Amino acid sequence: MSRFRQMAELVSALDDPAGPLHRCTLLACSLLLALSASVPLPTQAQVAAPDWTQIKRVVAAQRDALKAGNAELAFSFAAPGIRAQFGSPENFLAMVRSGYAALLDARYVEFLDGAVIEGNVIQPLRLILPDNSVQVALYTMARQADGEWRITGCVVAPSTTRAA
Q1: CATH number reported for the structural domain that contains residue 49 in this entry
Q2: What integer pLDDT is reported at residue 13 of this predicted model?
Q3: Around 114, how many Cα atoms within 13 Å sit in the side-chain half-sphere?
Q4: Which residues are registered as beta bridge partners of 140?
Q5: Per residue in 84-106, pLDDT tens?
Q6: First-to-last CA distance in the chain?
Q7: What pLDDT, on a 0 to 100 scale, did the predictor assign at position 161?
Q8: What predicted TM-score, i.e. pTM, was given to this entire model?
Q9: Which one, of 137, 52, 152, lies nearest residue 100 by Cα?
Q10: Which DSSP string corresponds to 78-122?
Q11: Which residue(s) pair with 137 in the sheet?
Q12: How does residue 9 score in pLDDT terms, banded at 50, 70 and 90?
């Protein structure tokens, strides 16, 4: 099965089983896979329950820092490749504000079950925006040499559902 198809199936399977399913656009899946393609990541067997807890903590802490405007703290949760790409915490925060407004504007967030697809660790976060539209942020994660998890990329994919 292709990586694109697996990613689309992952996003579709993540929503509340009682409601319509989220769907990832091909572009969003392509971007996520491109961001994560060069990072060697652990297999499913290497991502234990405590790792998923730590991954969620990292994502939540970065989002909290972003919402507070703490660029330096938010930048610290990014993997070295992301830090090198943006160069400074200020550039990183500016990028998030311009391209990831949904992460900052969501009135409600909920972690969905993470998955490993072809070695890529994916942590989805459901975002419910003030207008009740729903999006899913797909974070790619990598364990660093010091054992800590860091964010290697994020793509926000639209959903076909609306919140009540």
Answers
A1: 3.10.450
A2: 52
A3: 23
A4: 122, 153
A5: 999 999 999 999 999 999 999 99
A6: 35
A7: 83
A8: 0.76
A9: 137
A10: B-HHHHHHH-SHHHHHHHHHHH-HHHHH-SEEEE---EEETTEEE
A11: 125, 156
A12: low
- The structural domain count of the chain equals 1
The tokens for 77 are 């949760």
Bridging pattern class, strands 149-162 and 108-111: unpaired
Residue type, 68: A
Rounded to an integer, the average pLDDT of 47-61 is 97
- How far is Cα 75 from Cα 61, in angstroms, rounded to an integer? 11
Packing angle between helix 3-13 and helix 26-36, nearest 10 degrees? Answer: 110
Structural domain for 131, as ranges: 3-162
> Which residues, other chains included, contact 41 with Cβ-Cβ below 8 Å and sequence gap of 6+?
116, 119, 120, 121, 140, 141, 142, 143
